[in-house]
Design goal:
about 140 residues, globular, five-stranded parallel β-sheet
Length: about 140
């Protein structure tokens, strides 16, 4: 099984940015643990703060991977282009959020990704990624 986690803007700051919301663990440390826990899954990771690069990565993986776990971060609520990219590929996408976006500002309640995603997982901290990973397993 081949799964990629794609993280959007500011998620490179995990472990430093707003630890009360996002925790104090870096994503790289979390990802290493996830790889160790699921050695039979070929897990990849990509992060960019640039919308077009995220779209390019979805296009690149969207026909050859078994699943995409996408945390588009703030672009979730603003990017029609990312929503269209998810809609345009064959690989199923699970939208993930570390925080419960529905407990936050109202603009975070709308997603351009959700209508085209296999599902949405939000509010379980970094464990949201592992829950999304499980959704691809038989």
């Amino acid at each position: 099984m081949k799964i990629i986690i794609i993280n959007g803007p500011n998620l490179n700051l995990l472990g430093k940015r707003e630890p009360s919301v996002y925790g104090s663990e870096t994503f790289e440390d979390y990802f290493s643990g996830l790889q160790a826990k699921y050695p039979k899954v070929e897990l990849s990771y990509y992060q960019s703060n640039i919308e077009g690069e995220l779209i390019d990565k979805i296009h690149e993986c969207g026909f050859s991977f078994d699943g995409i776990i996408l945390n588009a971060a703030a672009y979730t609520h603003t990017s029609v282009g990312l929503g269209d990219a998810v809609k345009g590929v064959e690989t199923p996408v699970v939208e993930v959020h570390i925080s419960n976006v529905y407990q936050r500002e109202s603009f975070r309640h709308d997603s351009y990704i959700a209508p085209n995603a296999k599902g949405i997982i939000a509010g379980f901290g970094l464990q949201s990624y592992e829950l999304a990973l499980h959704s691809f397993m038989p």
